């Protein structure tokens, strides 16, 4: 069920999202796990985390959740690399994409929290105040939905992840500088502290 919403009036958009969420069946109990060589860096269900740096970590999380039967919504990320997510194993039937959520992407994400396992929220450079973030954090915790915030300032975030590319792997038979990249090695930091290295691909 890949869904893309064009810019439409806000009330219609929110009502459409509510209908789609009502049609989605129950959630599984999996947590969202960024890949790390020291084991997964677990984000328990109901966590709101700020994610920055290499996008391949975000795509890996989307792929992991959908491949495990979970439902994901991507809000405010018109240039998200869905092909890369599919190559990592994402199931597009479990993905809703809202490239243009209008003037209030936080409200759209808050509605989606009710029926999704993972909501990726692109803020487009916006700043969300602590008063507003508390309400979303409480709702995500209550509904058991993980929210990953990108491209903006989310005041008071308890969990912040940063992914940095630290190397590449090439397909068999390739020589350095030539051939297809088969995986990207990442260093994942949490609140400024390295939590391990991982690979996507």
Note down, in words, how this protein is organized.
With 201 residues, this protein is an alpha/beta fold. The protein has a single domain (48-192), classed as 3-Layer(aba) Sandwich (Rossmann fold), CATH 3.40.50.300. The chain has 5 helices and 11 strands, in the order E-H-E-H-E-H-E-H-E-E-H-E-E-E-E-E. It has helices at 10-23, 55-67, 82-87, 105-112, 130-143, and strands spanning 3-4, 48-53, 72-75, 95-98, 118-122, 127-128, 146-150, 153-154, 159-170, 181-190, 193-200. The chain has a 9-stranded mixed sheet with strand order 1-4-3-5-7-2-9-10-11, sandwiched between helices. Helix 3 (82-87) links the parallel strand 3 (72-75) and strand 4. The radius of gyration is 17 Å and the shape is globular. The two termini are 24 Å apart. The model is unreliable at 25-30, 35-40 and 192-197 (pLDDT under 50).
Task: List the keywords.
201 residues, 9-stranded mixed β-sheet, Rossmann fold, 11 strands, alpha/beta, two-stranded parallel sheet
Give a short summary of the structure.
This protein has helices at residues 10-23, 55-67, 82-87, 105-112, 130-143, and strands at 3-4, 48-53, 72-75, 95-98, 118-122, 127-128, 146-150, 153-154, 159-170, 181-190, 193-200. The chain is an alpha/beta fold.
Strand segment count: 11
- Radius of gyration, in Å, reads 17 Å
Which range best describes the helical content: under 10%, 10-25%, 25-40%, 40-55%, 55-70% or over 70%?
A: 25-40%
Please identify, by name, the CATH architecture. Answer: 3-Layer(aba) Sandwich
Report the biggest beta sheet as strand number plus sense, adding barrel if it closes. 9 strands, mixed
CATH third-level topology: Rossmann fold
